[in-house]
Amino acid sequence: MVISPQPVSRTTRIACFIVAILSVASLAYPPLPVLTLLGDSEQYRQAGEALLSGDILRPFNEQVSTSHIAVSLRPLLFPLLLGITTHLPLLHPDTALITAHIVLGCLLLVAATVALWGSVNPLLTTLAIGFALYSVKQAAWGIMSEWLAMCLLFLAALLYLAWISRTSPHLALAVSLCLSLAILTRAALLPWFALPLIMILQAPRGTHKFTALAISTGLLPLVLWGAINLHRTGTFSVLPYEGLNLLATARSLGTIPSAPNDSDLERRLITDINERGITAPDTAFTPTGVHRWEGEFYGAFHINFNVTTDTLRSLTMPNAGRPYSLATRGLRAHTDRYRRFLWGGVIALTCDYLPLIALCAIATAWLAQRTPQTARWALGVITLCVISLTYLVVIFSSMLWLHRYIIPAQPILVFCLAVSATRLVGTLLQRRLTTEL
């Protein structure tokens, strides 16, 4: 059922403006220490410079030598933002980036309120968005891609919630485009590609073809990036960097076995990472310790990641070693350790993140039961909960960096929970007052 927009009073508009200003101010003040991530921040800076100079778009073996292969293989949107802010006059590069992050948060607030104007009370939308953004404030003060990826993914989710209540090809296109840009910021968000596929199934009868066409059009940035990678590396791929993470994880479990049909380049890669890499000790796989960033497992992982990238840098073509294929081989060779690795992810997911997802889904389902006219909203929120859970399962089955990788999805869950819970409480109070009267 399409929800018709309701008139909004002048007082509500003023309240929305005040809440939005306070929300943006809370992101800026009090300031937080600037967060950097080991060598990642420096790699992003180098990638930004290479992108602005055009070097990153050349074939891989013609690029100016860089200190790390990740400079060439990382998705391009955050390096582009970082490169632009680094060259802004009168501002320190870190200050310029944080300012850009806060401006993005402000734009997200405005876009969300406009997109959901006819579906959710504007004041509730503004309050919930402000609270959701504040829950990941530290990311805004970091030289890291999470904030930009979060803004794009959050906007895609909000546009999807708007689409679910008033389906249109324009909204479907906007969802797909924002999602494509989010993946081009953090390739780990690829599981969220399930959202546009689900939208085609959820489209009203007779609109499936138009929805599919709009969604396909929005995926053109991913196709373009894949074509660029085909030109640079010889392989059509939108996430070449993530294969390196998975291969380093597999090597941390144990040595990578060779196969009779391996090419010379693959044999060289396998031999080098087996000889120079290290295997995490048995003590690294305790259920509560394997996922810890400062734990023994990630100590081994970082060494293996650098060994893998150093070896690939010396190869003629960066994807010649087929990282995904070799990583899968390593995981199969060490199934017992991989099961312990996965169990640590189950513990982290269950204790730290599943309660938020479950609470959001339960509150939304309860709301739909009490208020049937919110059924479409409930369908959208539960869809986002399922995709969030799927995304986290994919992460903990490969890298376990849940505390960092939850950042793009957390505000979506916080926003949906805040809106559903507020609506539910309002409905229960209204019915109680009606009963008493």
Describe the overall structure.
With 437 residues, this protein is an all-alpha fold. It folds into three domains: 10-219, no CATH class; 239-333, no CATH class; 343-437. It is built from 20 helices and no strands. It has helices spanning 10-28, 40-53, 70-73, 77-86, 93-115, 122-134, 137-140, 146-165, 169-183, 194-202, 208-218, 220-233, 240-253, 264-276, 296-314, 323-333, 335-370, 375-396, 402-405, 410-436. Helix 2 (40-53) crosses helix 4 (77-86). The longest helix has 36 residues, at 335-370. The radius of gyration is 23 Å and the shape is globular. Residues 1-5 have low confidence and may be disordered.
Number of helices: 20
Helix fraction, binned, reads: 55-70%
Give me the count of strands: 0
How would the global form be characterised? globular
Biggest beta sheet summary: none
What is the domain total for the residues?
A: 3
Report the average pLDDT across residues. Answer: 87
Please state roughly what percent of the residues sit in beta strands, choosing from under 5%, 5-15%, 15-25%, 25-35%, 35-45% or over 45%: under 5%
Radius of gyration: 23 Å
Distance between the termini: 31 Å
Please write the string of helix (H) and strand (E) elements.
HHHHHHHHHHHHHHHHHHHH
Unreliable spans: 1-5
Structural class comes to mainly alpha
